[in-house]
Amino acid sequence: MTTLTTLNIATRQSPLALWQAEHIQARLQALYPSLTVNLVPMVTKGDKILDTPLAKIGGKGLFVKELEQALYEKRADIAVHSLKDVPMVLPEGLTLGAYCEREQPTDAFISNHYESIDALPQGAKLGTSSLRRQCQIQQYRPDLEIISLRGNVGTRLSKLDAGEYDAIILATSGLTRLGLTDRIRHELDTHISLPAVGQGALAIECRSDDADVLALLKPLNDEPSRLCVMAERAMNRHLQGGCQVPIAGFATIQDGQIYLQGRVGSVDGKTLLKAEHHNALVDDARESEQIAEAVGVVVAEALIAQGADKILAQIYQDG
């Protein structure tokens, strides 16, 4: 039983981030009725700079740095993140204390006039902030005009409704959490758009030496989700990729085997490299973690053998 009486959660102030923090707040209060759980809302650099593509200003790590500073300064005990926003290597002294059960990880097609990505007319304007989505969609529909789209979910939907785009692509999980599934025309099949590493999963970051908090978070961990995203993140880390690069990775567990697909593409969609690998998991949690991460490395090596390192080096140089 925890000796803590109060727990503070650092969170961004966007509606989706607040939903995520409130969701974890409610789960912790249900588990520990005597625990007072407070939210510590803050604005990050990624929230302030909305007129520049994320890849140009440092990637999605900009959404977590202020929250991590609050952990260091002990103004907060945990921070709740969408895992796809979390850099592949954490700062010293911080760890991911729990990987929560994953929501649907797909990309969602949203349009007020067209039923599907196939129904879009030639030259239609499609909005996304993601180089990963851009490279895969340009491969599938090279005729579309891909236009950068920043802002929170509500802002992006408003821009669509104002007629700035014919369609936009958002994460299914975010729309589901905000009760906006009625805006989804369809979910993109993974053969068209493989999800981002960690997409749909929530992770809880804390200080690595905070044994009380780590014990508190343990019941929130979902082991299948944890192993899948560990494989994905190991692949991304081995590719030396960040959060805002054209890398896709998606793992599933079926019949005791962990399966991982990975992709790396050029931004124009003319090159899209693909690799996959699977291996059997075991009963031991630590050994399964090592197996999952090894699967990630194998997929990364297969992509590098096809030239992924050269594609990514060019993107970093251009950025």
From TrEMBL:
GO terms for biological process: protoporphyrinogen IX biosynthetic process. Its cofactor is dipyrromethane. Transmembrane segments: none annotated. The porphobilinogen subunits are added to the dipyrromethane group. Belongs to the HMBS family. Tetrapolymerization of the monopyrrole PBG into the hydroxymethylbilane pre-uroporphyrinogen in several discrete steps. Keywords: Porphyrin biosynthesis, Transferase. GO terms for molecular function: hydroxymethylbilane synthase activity. The modification S-(dipyrrolylmethanemethyl)cysteine is found at residue 243. It catalyses: 4 porphobilinogen + H2O = hydroxymethylbilane + 4 NH4(+). Binds 1 dipyrromethane group covalently. Monomer. InterPro entries: HemC, Porphobilin_deaminase_cofac_BS, Porphobilin_deaminase_N, Porphobilinogen_deaminase_C, Porphobilinogen_deaminase_C_sf. GO terms for cellular component: cytoplasm. Pathway: Porphyrin-containing compound metabolism; protoporphyrin-IX biosynthesis; coproporphyrinogen-III from 5-aminolevulinate: step 2/4. PROSITE patterns: PORPHOBILINOGEN_DEAM. It is an enzyme of class 2 (transferase). The lineage of its organism: Bacteria, Pseudomonadati, Pseudomonadota, Gammaproteobacteria, Moraxellales. This is Porphobilinogen deaminase. Its EC number is 2.5.1.61. The gene is hemC.
